[in-house]
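Figure 2 data, in text form.
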Amino acid sequence: MSTKQPDGQEPPLFLVDRMLGALCRYLRFMGYDTESAHSMAEGNPREDTLLIRSAERKGRILVTRDRELAQRAGPRAVLISGDDVIDQISQLVKQGLIEPELRLNRCSICNELLRPARSEEVSSASYAPKNRGDLRFFWCRHCRKLYWLGSHSEQLEKRIRGDF
């Protein structure tokens, strides 16, 4: 489940502001290493400066709905204009930053890489489907959350792909 870009380049790394929680989860579903401002303590008056410095230091693209923050960050930032997460994804696709493909190789909660789930992890998850058939399961070691590609992921992939 590689996230290499079609041109063979390494995929971009993202840092999203607090206003883009849904986009953060979707980027992770698509396999993009995406940090969130939610990992920072709330209420810090210097948060914008810290976000810019973190993006620069870690080589991340700052994704924000805040026009002033985007201007301060310069070329390292992408200003998101839409309210709907699918419109936001579309904007990033049109800018050539992402490919609209469900990869399911990162935890949507903590951003950790997923690994194949062990049978005991699947059986101990009360929310796992009972009819497992050909399903492949993935596990987040940090969150202890189980993921799988099922009918819900087909719907998610249709939403992500949109009309691209």
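Caption note: The mean pLDDT is 89.
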